[in-house]
Amino acid sequence: MQYRNLGKWGVKVSEIGLGSWLTYGGATENETARKCIERAYELGINFFDTANAYARGESEKVVGKTLAKFPRESYVVATKVFFPMGDGPNDRGLSRKHITEQCNASLKRMGLAYLDLYQCHRYDTSTPLEETLLALDDLVRQGKILYFGVSEWNPSQIGNACQMIRASGLHPIVSNQPYYNILGRAIEKEVIPLCEHEGIGQVVFSPLAQGVLTGKYKPGQPPPSDSRAADPRQNMFMGGRGVLDEGQLQRIQALIPIAEEAGITMSQLALAWCLRQPIVSSVITGASRPSQVEASASASGIVLSAETLAKIDKVFPLAA
């Protein structure tokens, strides 16, 4: 396993991370989740990402309980705050009240004294940005979190936050968690250049497009019965008709010979493609069985040639 700095900052995270969205504490049995996390750790994965909203705190419990058997300094755990955790008017968002209460709740659920990375799961238009940043800065000063980051914020929101942080002498944003893969390259236009300038590392989610980029879904064929796409609730690439986009699947087939020529699997191709960006610190993968963890981990260290990258760009170019 190879490791990268989180942006320009000192902490190092594994190129391949393990996430828990739609799996641990929910769709995946806890025992299976435990095996996936333990196998990830054995393979050198040290970056584990979750969120308070995943299964309303159950994912955090599973992740925390499993990691508790390992030395605390040997892993980097990240969680998030924003989405509703209750029915009350203050049980959501990025107010000082909600951030503080949910940080304490996450620490309790995970059995930790501190969080390595605390992320704003989305931008809160109903709370002053200053309030959010001051609350996060206080958590750093209190030792409850070591770093903080954002997820799915647009360039203007990230840029405004960085300016406010500099003006007020607050602790910086160290990471951004965006959607990024061969099929979705939008962040390359503005987000990546901005984050390169600010030294903000990208910990990208859905690098395999929820399994679509593994090549296991074939045009004109039903999805495998044990795949995520077999359950429309679990795949964002399922349309309203409960089927995957046939046109997209046809285009993805064109990537198969590119991977074969490079001597790697489709999964390795997709993950290595994301990691070609130096500002991408880690790709967050999901797994419902240990073999999937092993397949993802094997992509670490693979460097795609300029010829291979050019072929991929020809199939899936950056939109104008």
Report, as a whole number of angstroms, the end-to-end distance: 35 Å
Parts with pLDDT < 50 across at least 5 consecutive residues? 236-242
Which topology does CATH recognise? TIM Barrel
Secondary-structure-derived class: alpha/beta
**Strand portion:** 15-25%
Determine the mean pLDDT. Answer: 92
Tell me what you see in this structure:
The chain has a single domain (3-208, 277-303), classed as NADP-dependent oxidoreductase domain (TIM Barrel, Alpha-Beta Barrel). The protein has helices at residues 30-42, 58-67, 96-110, 129-142, 155-168, 191-198, 246-253, 255-262, 266-275, 290-297, 306-315, and strands at 3-5, 12-14, 16-19, 47-49, 76-81, 115-120, 145-151, 173-177, 201-205, 280-285. It has an 8-stranded parallel β-barrel, surrounded by 6 helices. A two-stranded antiparallel sheet has the order 1-2. Helix 3 links the parallel strand 5 (76-81) and strand 6 (115-120). It is of the alpha/beta class and 320 residues long. Helix 8 (255-262) packs antiparallel against helix 11 (306-315). It has 11 helices and 10 strands. The model is unreliable at 236-242 (pLDDT under 50).
List the helices and strands and how they pair.
Blueprint lengths: L2 E3 L6 E3 L1 E4 L10 H13 L4 E3 L8 H10 L8 E6 L14 H15 L4 E6 L8 H14 L2 E7 L3 H14 L4 E5 L13 H8 L2 E5 L40 H8 L1 H8 L3 H10 L4 E6 L4 H8 L8 H10 L5
Parallel strand pairs: 3-4, 3-10, 4-5, 5-6, 6-7, 7-8, 8-9, 9-10
Antiparallel strand pairs: 1-2
Helix pairs in contact: 1-2, 1-10, 3-4, 5-6, 8-11
